[in-house]
Write a structure and sequence with these properties.
Layout lengths: L2 E5 L3 E3 L4 E8 L8 E6 L6 E6 L5 E3 L7 E6 L4 E6 L8 E7 L14 E2 L3 E6 L1
Parallel strand pairs: 2-11
Antiparallel strand pairs: 1-3, 3-8, 4-5, 4-9, 5-6, 7-8, 9-10, 9-11
Length: 123
């Protein structure tokens, strides 16, 4: 069974940094697209960053230059390094896999989701 488990969310002040982790299990890590999504109260789920199975990375314009996605194939863990955090980054962050090599642009195409981890940025 494919499972994803996020950790690392917490409350920080504007300008601070956090690193989120997503531990994957139940499949050959790296064989599928893995992505980070976030959802703020009252808003739609938004794609943040993703890694294709070939290693290509994609980022949302709103976080380019501030967030970095990476993965550790030995630890089967996906990371999201978030720097220069802003209040508008406040959301629940989820990792998800599409169970395909490519990274779809819509949330509904992702088949497995973690439980989410809360990030709160205060001004």
């Amino acid at each position: 069974e494919v499972q994803l488990a996020e950790s690392g969310g917490q409350s920080v002040q504007s300008g601070g940094s956090l690193r989120l982790s997503c531990k994957a299990s139940g499949y050959t890590f790296g064989s599928f697209c893995l992505g980070w999504w976030r959802q703020a109260p009252g808003k739609e789920r938004e794609g943040v960053a993703a890694i294709y199975s070939d290693g290509r990375k994609t980022y949302a314009n709103s976080i380019k230059g501030r967030f970095t996605i990476s993965q550790d194939n030995v630890e089967s863990t996906l990371y999201l390094q978030m720097n220069d955090l802003r209040p508008e980054d406040t959301a629940t962050y989820f990792c998800a896999t599409s169970l395909t090599a490519g990274c779809p642009q819509v949330a509904v195409a992702y088949k497995i989701w973690g439980q989410g981890t809360q990030v709160t940025v205060s001004s």
